[in-house]
Design goal:
Number of helices: 12
Largest sheet: 7 strands, mixed
Radius of gyration: 19 Å
Mean pLDDT: 96
Structural class: alpha/beta
Helix content: 25-40%
CATH architecture of the largest domain: 3-Layer(aba) Sandwich
Order of helices and strands: EHEHEHEHHEHEHEEEEHEEHEHEHH
CATH topology of the largest domain: Rossmann fold
Number of strands: 14
Low-confidence stretches: none
CATH class of the largest domain: Alpha Beta
Shape: globular
Distance between the termini: 44 Å
Oligomer: single chain
Number of domains: 2
CATH superfamily of the largest domain: Thiamin diphosphate (ThDP)-binding fold, Pyr/PP domains
């Protein structure tokens, strides 16, 4: 079955609502409108306005209410319309949602999913094209995952809803309309990385919005006789060092790609772990291709700001030059 990522997420949420009457969706304009990106289109009509809830415009209130609902046995799925809108809810996410299970010595579980459309590439204005993943990956008590294909979107959103821990679910908004096949019978574990393309010369490590561009770069490199393996992390906290390590063992080289800024980005963690644990297998330093250490630019400049094929190929060349 070939569907867009939006449709895959909609189908996954529909299945989660069907499977468990304690699941409910909440967010700004998700009911009658179906969400800014129409991810929840039609769900209010089928499940009612007590399970698909249009909330006031207040992110802290959305997440705070979800914390209370989860403590009473519900499984809320919150939509925060854009990545840049998550910061008003950061206090609730970091000091409450991420901490209550530890604070209660495991007596309280908070099965809350926070859905966040993130990343650039849609020509949007300020606060609508950010990459906040590192804030949450750094926060103990949260799981942080991101899909890159409709197949993963369909399965991962259901796995996140079923998880007893809070999950930050990052959706690459520029790929909402990308279509792909869904196999209903073959989900990967939520925290497992996937090798999207096999290769022998260098490992490209990507996640979310940069996976398609990494695959495009690998295809271009193949035309020059270079074999590039592409690993899709899928989960950032926890992240699957085992799959990455096995790939780097085969290739001896690694380049990490993400849209977030270079300094203190998630690629720094990947590079540090690989060079700490896999130093003797590396034939070159771990490279990084990222956004720049600036606020996200105006739309006319974003194609230069975002990691692209040329920048990735340059990083591959640098790695192979050692």
């Amino acid at each position: 079955m070939t569907v867009s990522m939006v449709k895959a997420l909609n189908d996954g949420l529909r299945q989660a609502l069907t499977d468990d009457p304690k699941v409910l969706l909440m967010g700004e304009d998700i009911g009658r409108l179906g969400g800014v990106f129409r991810v929840t289109d039609g769900l209010r009509k089928d499940f009612g306005d007590l399970r698909v809830v249009d909330t006031p415009l207040g992110e802290a209130g959305i997440v705070g209410a979800a914390v209370g609902l989860a403590m009473r046995g519900y499984r809320p799925v919150c939509e925060l319309q854009f990545d840049g809108f998550v910061y008003p809810a950061a206090n609730q996410i970091i000091t409450q949602l991420a901490k209550l299970r530890h604070r209660s010595a495991g007596r309280i579980s908070l099965p809350v999913v926070i859905r966040i459309p993130y990343g650039g590439g849609i020509g949007s204005i300020e606060h609508h094209s950010e990459s906040p993943e590192t804030y949450f990956a750094h926060t103990a008590g949260l799981k942080v995952v991101t899909c890159s294909t409709p197949h993963d979107a369909f399965h991962m959103i259901q796995q996140a809803v079923a998880d007893d821990d809070p999950v930050i679910f990052l959706e690459p908004k520029r790929h909402y309309w990308t279509k792909g096949e869904i196999d209903p019978s073959s989900p990967q574990p939520l925290d497992r990385a996937v090798v999207r393309r096999e290769g022998t010369d260098v490992t490209l490590i990507a996640y979310g919005p940069t996976v398609p561009v990494a695959l495009e770069a690998a295809e271009a490199a193949a035309e020059e006789g270079r074999s590039v393996e592409v690993v899709d992390l899928r989960s950032l906290s926890p992240w699957d060092i085992t799959t990455v390590r096995a790939s780097v063992h085969r290739t001896g080289r690694a380049v990490v790609v993400h849209e977030a800024a270079h300094s203190h980005g998630f690629g720094a963690e990947v590079a540090a772990r690989l060079q700490d644990e896999e130093f003797h297998f590396l034939e070159a330093p771990v490279g990084r291709v990222t956004g720049y250490d600036t606020p996200y630019p105006p739309s006319r400049l974003e194609s230069d700001w975002l990691p692209g094929v040329d920048r990735i190929l340059n990083a591959i060349d640098r790695s192979l030059s050692y």
